Amino acid sequence: MGHPEARKLKTVISFLIIIGAFAIWWGTLYYLKKREKLGKWGELYLFFLLLKTGRGRRLLDRLASRRRFWKGFGYLSIILSFFSMALMFMLLLLSAYFSLTARVKPTKPSMMLVLPGINPIIPFWYGIVALAIAIIIHEFSHGIQARVDRIKIKSLGLVLAIIPVGAFVEPDEEEVKVMPRRARMRMYASGPGMNIVVAMVLGIIFCWGLLGSVQADRGVIVYAVSEDSPLKLLYPDVDPVAILSVNGSPVDPEEDFYQFSPAPPGATIEMEVLNEKGEKVVLRGVPVGVVVTGLQKGYPAEKAGIEEGMIILSIDGKIISSEEAFTDFMVSTHPGQRINVTVLKPERGEGEVRYVLSNFTGIELAHKYDVYPLEEFKGVGFLGVSTAYLGVVVEGAESFIERLSHPVKSSRDLSELRVNLLTVMFTLPINIKIMPFHSPLTDIYHVNGVLGRLPPGAFWMLTNAVYYIFWINLLLGTFNTLPLLIMDGGVLFKDTVEGLAERLIKGEKAQERRKRFSQGIYTSVSYITVFLLLAIIFGPYLVR
Question: Which of 32, 106, 192, 455 counts the most CB atoms within 10 A of its CB?
Answer without folding.
Answer: 192
